[in-house]
Specification:
Length: about 475
Amino acid sequence: MKRTHTDNQIASGVVIAGTRSGCGKTLATLGLATVLRERGLCVQGYKVGPDFIDPSHLSAICDRPAHNLDGWMLSRERVLEIFHRYAVEVDFCLVEGVMGLYDGASGAEETGSTAQMAKWLGLPVLLVVDARSQGRSAAALVQGFRDFDPELHLAGVIFTQVGGPRHEAMLREAMASHLPELPCLGCLPRRSDLELASRHLGLHMAEDLGWDASRRRFLADWVEQGLDMELLHRISRQSAAILKSVPSLDTDNEQGGRVRLGVARDRAFCFYYQENLRLLENAGAELVFFSPLTDGALPDNVQGLFFGGGYPELHAAELTQNHAMRAAVAAAAEAGMPVYAECGGMQYLLAELEDVGGAVFPMVGLFPARSKMHSRFQALGYRKVELRFAGLLGPAGTVLRGHEFHYSALDVPQADEVSAVYRITDSRGREFLEGFQRTNVLASYIHLHFGSHPPAAASFVRACANWAATASQGS
């Protein structure tokens, strides 16, 4: 179902924030989305921050792609453009926060936080509080969150991990006594059978867990029995976000020429920002999805390849055993086809991947290096990227923003034909070199957001078009 609103209509929606990671905001968000969908509403999901996993669940529940909104990687104008592009089509906007309400890129200010995003969007905030082992103290915690930023519209509270009727009564009594002006939407009971399974990079992806009808019904019952949905709708109408025409930030000079771009997408390669894919299409790319796990050949007539991140380490044996695909990727790269890879995609292009147990798996072999998996994460945080010299993503001096999170470590290639094209600045201001380029192939641990510099998408598409023209002349 697709809805179209007239200009200047108030957006109906909320931001679901948490006191911390793991407080239950993801499950609460998914439960609310399920109930709203069952009531016939068209719901658009958004995720604050750089995460890929939570948006996969929101996309599955809402039956439409969820979109990342990040106040560090993207400008306010770009965030609002993304939000409004999809908000005008739906009945309800559901924005899931990141970490705790006020957590972002630093401890000193709000950049990258859920609080910043809620103020940018003009949406009311519902605070999810893990009430386990708390009674009256829960009200003190909520009061601290409410008073921390007077500019934030904190509109209500949802308690999770509620132990039973007596616990619920105590929580409601505490709120009514100390914060009577702040509504309690309800209490979600503790249910171990509703917990979302996780692994080293976070929750399992939506396709791994499966959101069939019975699982959705189970989740909807949990929310409907615990929360006041009518109060939710009243709060959602407190939104200050105006649905109106927002000038597009896309420009004609971003057109890079019509090409077919092969995009790896399966259980091993599943981390892509929706806006990145849209910007590639806007630049002239026809996206053709394929599976390095199961396909025996690259798609016909592609002029470039994009390998996103994901979980190649969980599927290393299958990737190794698909000799035909590894050979096809290597042959395409050797023929000069532009290839761009991020994180897990980079691991696939290396010579070898070593798992936590020490087993070694041959990969494509475009770079003479091995990635080794560890039991603890090796890097985490926002990254500013400057191109040291011209490459697939633009001229020297081009600046983009992205995020890095991985459990593997890389033996840095030392061969003469491999060079580090990125000058990276992390959130602490430290600089280092990364982003390995070998002729037409660029691979890095950084997940770049092309919305931070859209001409980069056009540059990649243009490189693909130029190669296609050269290849056709030589054939």
